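An instance follows:
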Amino acid sequence: MNPGSQPETTREAILVATLELLGAHGLRGTTTRAIADLAGVNEVTIFRKFGTKHALVREAISSKLAEFAVESVAYTGDVEADLTRLVTGYEAMLEEFGPVARSVLTEVPFDDRTAPAVEALRAVVLTVSDLLVNYQKDGVIRPEPISTMVPALLGPIVMPVVTGYALMPQDQEAYRLDAETHVKRFLYGRAVGG
């Protein structure tokens, strides 16, 4: 193994363990000892790389959201393809990140030491907003406030995950979102000439 790749592997293992434990135990129930054990590293390694638990939590959340934005949000001029890629990527991220989303929305913003991680979520929302605004400028999507468009597009994806499917039908498979159908429903009434 290349010695240069070891720190990234260790770093990634720590970030993945952090997200997994946040999802399982929430912010307060996640300890650096548990993160170290799950990542297969010494607890001192966590403090050397990240400084504090809260800095680690911020980094874990921010890196996951940044990864999603890079992989799933892009303007190509094909509104259906771009929004389908966005919805598919967002749903996949939430399926993996799901339980963590509950912590990010219910615990992290209220802890002064981890609240800056919400900025990464805000950045993702702004990136999605920019994509929609570009299509509005192109005349492909009718003008509508972004404050209603983003929730209309992403809300049906995030709601079941954040609520743990508690508000959904008993059969979760019956609620599974089909990205292409969702995008077409989103665009219906918003698409020019639609």
Summary: Residues 1-7 have pLDDT under 50 and may be disordered. The CA atoms of residues 22 and 28 lie 9 Å apart.
